[in-house]
Amino acid sequence: MKATDSLYRRLILWLLLPLLGLGALMLMQAYRSAHDAADRAFDRLLEAASLAIAEQVKWQDKQLWLDLPPAALEMLATDAEERVFYALYDNHGRFITGNADLPAVPGGADTLRFADTHWHGMTLRVGVRPARLDSWSQRERFEVRVAHTREGRDQLTWSLFTGSAGRIALMALLAIAVVLLAIRIALAPLTRLRRAIRHRDPRTLAPLDLPLPRELAELRETLNELLARMRRVRANQERFIGDASHQLRTPLAGLSARAELALRQPDPASWRSALETIQASSARTARLAVQLLSLTRLNNPEATPVTSMLDLVAVARNATRDAFAACHRAGIALELDAPDDAIPLTGIDWQLEEALNNLIDNARRYGARHITVRVQAAPPRLQVEDDGPGIPTERRRLMLRPFHRGAETGEGSGLGLAIVDSIARGHGARLTLDEGRHGPGLCVSMTFQGDRA
Amino acid sequence: MKLLLVEDDTLLAETLQDALGLAGYSVGCLADGNEARERLAGRHDFALILLDLNLPGCSGLEVLATLRGHDADTPVLILTARGAIEDRVRGLDLGADDYLAKPFALDELEARVRALLRRRHPSGAHLQVGPLAFDGLAQRFTLDDEPLNLPPREQRLLGCLMRHAGEPIDKAQLAGEAFATDSVGDNAIEVYVHRLRRRLAGRGVELRTIRGLGYLLTES
């Protein structure tokens, strides 16, 4: 989402833009009707003036003759100081008399017609009245043309327009105010929700509880579901930390007690035995701390390590080689049983190596004399088999839980198989615990879904 | 032989200094990342550097980068509490030679130090596996203090196996290290190994085949 994007701004944009468009249309309409009204009013004047002139036309000396009354023209000159023109034409369109040769207006022969026209650089409104001399002796047709410039009309148009524009502006302001108010009221629950979230104690995972309109209530429910999931995760973590702390405290207490006891005894032989115990116990505790860290990292949902194309055989060879020295010193035979060709797989190499290290380590700690790391191609599978005491069938599933140890007297931390299980699940692999091929012992297999490239 | 230990935990640093001192090395000790970087920025006479990654001042990886900027040879063994293999890969990419995750056994540390020094100084060093000894200066093997005369190729092969004593080494690696210039096939290596085995049989040194990993020279 862009930083400038806001619901408030969107609403304002989509409500006010059409409103502005509408306002502009209304202004145009107002101008047009002001213009028409002014034209109608002034056309009456043209009509009256032309009638007054037409009534004064007479037949004299075998031709049309006009004795123009001044009042006829005066009525056309308003205080806007228009220029006024008139002209008289006979039925052949010949100019008889007038103060300007005005252009003709096309149209019907018997009706009064008006038109806007340009004439000698001026905009004129021309009124044309066809008329007939109706006396007993003569039936002569003629045409009276009257025109004036538009100053008076424009003035009237403008004053009518400004009046209605003012009213429209007032209405627009009111509408904008109402829109802003409506948006603010409609978005108020959103603001409340935001405040409620912001004012929460960051440590609390209690559900949000505030009345909201339907659309936001759905959001609130979704948030509450997320919070509920987080509560479960945290409860899990708290239990894990509790277990971990217990697991670390117990051997530390043992170490401290053993050292204290040895210090009370004067016999150097008992010091030696105490030191040996202390060394073994501290090594175990340190290993537990390492395993706790790696389990925490594996189970961290925020971390998504990068997967890559790897060779299962190379992974197994690296892990076996790493573990070889320690096994060799302890007199345990460690072997790798792998095909010559690479077995490609998408995964995280250091995690798979860690899984194998844990399995080899487990086998070593639980009394194996012979450990075989096996790699198989179809389906891709990593296997660690030992000839130790094994695990009874009914206890195998329990072994995958953190802090569940096989033999209560054993010296393992109870995290090794939990780590392997996490890694297997992360790789979509199936983890199975079986008996060794030859009698007792344990054979742990990670079978991957065959995504051979 | 002078070693440098860069480690900020006093207890661990003192213990390692004592242990390596008892093993015959002279150990210089630094506790601060910046100090270590200054010390290693120019010429130095350490045969091997033990480097903690989590240091005050600047991180061990930065120290390593500074060192590798001008010195590609001195072996570096990384010691760190960051357990995962992920970090090891990063250290090795930056030019470290080996990696040891804390907690580690002193035995393991000493074995790695010996192996790194052996690998770095193949000639001129004295190597010993049980009763079998190699005098690098004279290029001569002795078994139970009697000279062991070998044909040149078997001699090179045994020298390579002795430098890697205690760790399995596969055929490809053997061929690369022992016969770098000649091209020697897998079958030829099997023949030489077979002959060496016969020579060493029953003399307290054993040349074992570790399935999947290669050959291992060890005391029997």
UniProtKB/TrEMBL annotation, chain A:
CDD domains the record matches: HATPase, HisKA
GO molecular-function terms, A-Z: kinase activity
Transmembrane segments: 168-190
Subcellular location: Membrane
Broad class of where this protein is predominantly found: membrane
Family matches, as InterPro entries: 2CSK_N, HAMP_dom, HATPase_C_sf, HATPase_dom, His_kinase_dom, HisK_dim/P_dom, HisK_dim/P_sf, Sig_transdc_His_kin-like_C
Domain HAMP: 184-235
Record has Chaperone as a keyword: no
UniProt keyword list: Kinase, Membrane, Phosphoprotein, Transferase, Transmembrane, Transmembrane helix, Two-component regulatory system
PROSITE patterns: HAMP, HIS_KIN
Catalytic activity: ATP + protein L-histidine = ADP + protein N-phospho-L-histidine
Enzyme class, spelled out: transferase
Residue ranges constituting the Histidine kinase domain according to the UniProt record: 243-452
Entry's EC annotation: 2.7.13.3
PANTHER family reported for this sequence: SENSOR HISTIDINE KINASE YKOH, SENSOR PROTEIN QSEC
Record's protein name: histidine kinase
Lineage: Bacteria, Pseudomonadati, Pseudomonadota, Gammaproteobacteria, Oceanospirillales
From TrEMBL, chain B:
Response regulatory domain mapped to chain residues: 2-117
SUPFAM superfamilies: C-terminal effector domain of the bipartite response regulators, CheY-like
Keyword hit for Phosphoprotein: yes
Pfam families, alphabetized: Response_reg (PF00072), Trans_reg_C (PF00486)
DNA-binding stretch(es), residue numbering of this chain: 124-219
SMART domains linked: REC, Trans_reg_C
Residues of the OmpR/PhoB-type domain: 124-219
PROSITE patterns linked to this entry: OMPR_PHOB, RESPONSE_REGULATORY
Transmembrane segments: none
Modified residues (4-aspartylphosphate): D52
Swiss-Prot/TrEMBL keywords: DNA-binding, Phosphoprotein, Transcription, Transcription regulation
PANTHER family (UniProt xref): REGULATOR OF RPOS, TRANSCRIPTIONAL REGULATORY PROTEIN TCTD
Protein name as it appears in the record: Response regulator transcription factor
Organism: Modicisalibacter tunisiensis
